[in-house]
Amino acid sequence: MKALLRNGSQGVQRHDARNLQRSWRKFAAFAYVAGQYGYEYEGLSPIPPKGSPNPYFAFRRTPDAVERVTRTAERCPTALQGGQLPGMCLGGNRLRPSAEARRDVDLLHARIMVDYSRTHRQRGVIAFVILPFAMLLPLSRTGFSGTTLLVCAAIWLFFAALWGLGLLIARRRLTKYGRVLTAAGVAWPTRQAASDCRSPEAGQGTVVPRRAGDPGRPSP
Prior knowledge:
Blueprint: H1 2-9, E1 14-18, H2 24-36, E2 39-44, E3 56-61, H3 65-75, H4 102-117, H5 120-142, H6 146-183, H7 191-198
Antiparallel strand pairs: 1-3, 2-3
């Protein structure tokens, strides 16, 4: 949050973050809070994950970011000192949504899960390309044998099976959370989000206006 607010004070148009808490619902709650401070969730970031299973996600600065920060500071003056965060319950888990914010957080969670599920295929392909070289490199120094090659093949097939299982789970997630968004009238990913994911320069100097009545975007 401090990094996001630092970017806001500098007028940075896009803030990139990754989920390191192993809880996608907490990350969705963070996305809601970020929206209250002028950075709305925009989907996958063009920044490569550099071998990590956790991709980066982009948050785009809104045209009324300064006003949002001011209003949020008035409502939650101790948020940055460990107090209540905007839209979250007081005490205990600081990223536990209140009743009034739960629907927006649920929709953000669905959008994040759709985006995360879309990254599984690409991450698996990269791993399949790198893994054989990683196994064969030490063997090139010690010598090849039928046994060692069979071991390498078995390891590769094991990871291939894990990737296939993960792909099946990712597809089910896409279907499940896609239905949630469809029922809420949210079309996701948007064309802007898809193009931002493909282009490293996209979104660096532009702001996407907030669409009135979009249930997938938290309101200030």
